[in-house]
Amino acid sequence: MSRIKEQAIEILQDIPDEKVGLVVEILKELRSLYAQAGEAATHGAPQPAAMGIFCKYANTDLIPLEKEAWCEAVKEKYASD
C-alpha cells in the first residue's frame, strides 16, 4: 500500500464512527467521477477550444482589420465619455 493511502486510513481512523458513512459516500462519488473522467478521456472525440470555435463563420476579408477595429471601438467608447 502506498504512503498516501496509509495516510488516508490514518485520517479515517481519527474520524468518529457516526461520520465515517459520509466520508465513504464522498469517496464513492469521487471514484465514480474518476471512472467517468477516464472513460471520457479515452472514448470521446477531442473537444474544440473556445478560442477560434466560430472561425468557420468568419469573414476572411475582415480578419486583417480586427486589431484596427478593436482600437477604433475603444477610442470611440472613451471619446464619448
User: Count of DSSP helices?
Assistant: 3
Number of strands: 0
Distance between the termini: 66 Å
Shape: elongated
Share of β-strand residues = under 5%
Query: How helical, in percent, are the residues?
Result: 55-70%
Q: What structural category do the secondary elements indicate? A: mainly alpha
**Could you tell me the radius of gyration in angstroms?**
26 Å
pLDDT averaged over residues: 81
**Low-pLDDT residue intervals, each spanning 5 or more residues:** none
Q: Strand count, sense and closure of the main sheet?
A: none
H/E element sequence:
HHH
Indicate the multimeric state. single chain
List keywords for this structure.
single chain; 81 residues; mainly alpha; 3 helices; 0% strand; elongated
Written description of the protein model:
With 81 residues, this protein is an all-alpha fold. The protein has a domain at 3-43. The protein is 65% helix and 0% strand. It is built from three helices and no strands. The longest helix is centred in the middle third of the chain and has 27 residues, at 17-43. The N and C termini lie far apart (66 Å). The mean pLDDT is 81.
